[in-house]
Amino acid sequence: METFQNLILPFTVSIIILYGIINKLPVFEIFLKGAKKALSGTADLLPALTALCITVSMLSSSGALEILGKLLSPVCGLLGIPEEVLPLCIISPLSGSGSLSVLEEIFREFSPDSYIGRTASVIAGASETTFYAVAVYYGSVGITKTRHTIPAALAADITTYIAAAFFCKIM
């Protein structure tokens, strides 16, 4: 399987180049046009991603995440979400790498096989980095008004948190 994984990309690129040569296409020129388009797309995304990274850093450094966790803890208790996974629930819509480091902390403290560890695993695997996805996808095409996207996505995230806690508790 590893050999297949190592060969699939070179094989695919070779087939594309061979196709271009057989059809007498300017393969290198087409490649350069695609690379230029990708660079301009990346440049369009940078402001949104920079704002997102700064926001996550500010929330983490300022202690706002802990305060928000304490404020949400009574509501989460009513919904059946363990208080120990609240930091993951808060950071997950913002940052994938941030949520992975929170997940690692939860595993260290409670073990992956505990109820809290299993709930955190399901939340990490089933939830979306909502704000990152909106920044990337909407930013790449220049959409500035997200309308109902963020509320709907956050409602889906909250549903994921509740379902994760419920199903991990009964299993």
Rg, Cα atoms, Å: 21 Å
Percent of residues in helices: over 70%
- What pattern of helices and strands is seen along the backbone? HHHHHHHH
Give the overall average pLDDT. Answer: 86
Low-confidence regions: none
Structural class label? mainly alpha
Task: Provide the domain count.
Answer: 1
Topology, number of strands: 0
Continuous helix count: 8
Largest sheet: none
Distance, first to last CA: 33 Å
Task: Give a quick set of tags describing it.
171 residues; mainly alpha; 8 helices; 82% helix; elongated
Describe the protein in words.
By secondary structure, this protein is mainly α. The chain contains 8 helices and no strands. The protein has one domain. The longest helix has 36 residues.
Précis, in short:
With 171 residues, the chain is mostly helical. 82% of the residues lie in helices and 0% in strands.
Strand-helix topology:
Elements: H1 2-22, H2 27-62, H3 64-79, H4 86-91, H5 96-110, H6 115-126, H7 130-141, H8 149-170
Helix pairs in contact: 2-7, 5-6, 6-8
